[in-house]
Each structure stands twice: as C-alpha cells, then as structure tokens.
Amino acid sequence: MKEYSLALSPAHAAAGTVTFVADNAGAVAHALTVAGPGVSDAHTSTVAPGGKARLTVTLQAGSYELWCPIGNHRELGMDTHLQVGGKSPASHAPGSAAATATATGQ
User: Fold this and answer.
1) SS3 of 34, please?
2) Closest-CA residue to 42 (of 50, 31, 33, 51)
3) 46-64 core/surface letters (b: 16 or more CB in 10 A; e: else)
C-alpha cells in the first residue's frame, strides 16, 4: 500500500470466497478492512512497509467498502468500493475468486 489511496485489481469479483492481498508499497504502516453484505469489519493485521497480508472472506452479491483503518488514512483517500456479482464464472473453481487490494498513490 502507498499513501493515500486504494486500488483493486480486478475492480470487481464474483460471489464466493475471495482472498485479498494487501500489499504495502508505502512508507508507513497500513491495513485493510472489508465490510458489506455478510461481512462485518473483516480486516488484516497492520502491514509494515514492504509487507503483505492476506484476508479471505466469503462475498455475496452486492457492494462492499474497503478501507485502511489506521489513523485518518480512510479520510485521506484510502477508501474504495468493490462490486460483487453473481456466481463465479465456469472457468474458475466453484465458489472461488481472487482479488488483490493494493494501495497506490503519491
């Protein structure tokens, strides 16, 4: 992650089990929190600069908010949304998908 924004790759996911990889490429500690339908404040531990953390959650169709819960990072722009569609495409294993949450910015 890098000060002070979040970017998702991809920016959408299919419903099912998703593992977020929070990659901190910034100069200060960050973390990742996910909340939305069926998920209430799932979060990574604090990720030191240069570190990574994984967060696996089961997502339902709907909109999810992702943010950095450290200090005022959320207010500084480390906040984004993820739209989750229906079932996983046939090319993926049933109920699985993957997304990488990477904070990017200045």
Assistant:
1) strand
2) 33
3) ebeeebebebebebeeeeb
How far apart CA 86 and CA 51 sit, in angstroms, is 32
Give me the amino acid identity at 5.
S
Close Cβ partners of 87 (under 8 Å, ≥ 6 residues apart): 14, 15, 16
- Please indicate, yes or no, whether the overall pTM of this predicted structure exceeds 0.85: no
From the centroid of its chain, how far is CA 23? 10
Residue-by-residue pLDDT tens, the chain, 106 positions: 889 988 888 888 999 999 999 999 899 999 999 999 999 879 999 999 999 999 999 999 999 999 999 999 999 999 999 999 976 443 333 333 334 444 333 3
Assess contact for 101 and 24: CB atoms under 8 A. Answer: no
